[in-house]
Design goal:
The protein has 2 domains: 39 residues, no CATH class; 224 residues, Rossmann fold. The protein is built from 9 helices and 11 strands. The strands form 4 sheets. Strands 4-3-7-8-11 form a 5-stranded parallel sheet, sandwiched between helices. Strands 1-2 form a two-stranded antiparallel ribbon. Strands 5-6 form a two-stranded antiparallel sheet. The protein starts with a helix and ends in a 5-residue tail after the last helix.
Length: 308
Amino acid sequence: MQFDAERLALSQPPLKLAALRIAASVNPGVHGLRRAGSGDSFWQFRHYQPGDAARMIDWRRSARSDPVFVKENEWETAQKLWLWCDGSPSMHYRSDRSLPEKGTHATLLLLATAVLLLRGGEHVALLGAARPPRRAAEGTGAATPLSAADPSAPRRGAGTLTQMAETLTRRDPGTETDLPPQAVLPRHAQLILFSDFLAPLDAIGRALKPYAAAGVRGHMVQVLDPVETLLPMRGRVRFEGLEGEGDVLVRRVDGVRREYQGRLAAQQAGLMALGQRFGWTFAVHRTDRPPQTALLALLVALSLRPDR
């Protein structure tokens, strides 16, 4: 029995195993994207707000204090989520051997996110993959159809997470771009993007605008190496381009640090502005920080209602 378990573990993609461990440390009991809706399961009390229907008021709870409370139930309908991480050459960077490459870290975040979503009964898929979103069957790694009437219903097959891990680890950096591919997603779908988002802002905006126009709700997670955020080097440094930009020799990095950090801040401000315009969320995560911090923030963003 022990030999079989070891052989099974060795057959799994290493990133998948790491993602499972990280997801377990985030919240072992997570179940679905808890959000308000029309289900039967009680979710939470909250203060009454203008526009709330009178039938939502819980008079028994409100009688115990001055504020008026409404009762929200949990939305039990499974969500459809597409995930994508940047696999372009610029993601194959790390400033120190003790740190993971940006692409490896982004892939790990994507898979750990998928683990949590699948455990919660949500449907997930890789953006640009041939298969539509799938969810794991209860207690197994097999996929189950969304519904017989759904034209995008997937076929039964191997574990969704394993397929995602294998697809991501087989990618050829030479064929990957730093912008998400275009695809037709259903309205109210959600899109989670992991990238360094260092491409020109206008190009990023053009790539994301069709999704926002189609009613897709998005979440952008910018993954950066700590050196990219701090530029802590001193003196003479030669920077090598990873995507054919060529090399640049900077004779005094100290003299350009403030300008560089200003341009990075402007890029991030532009990304945040894009998110506000589209109704999307934006977060920054460094590869020297625990992935759990990014996952927790992402879970909060996923659970929020679009109008909040």
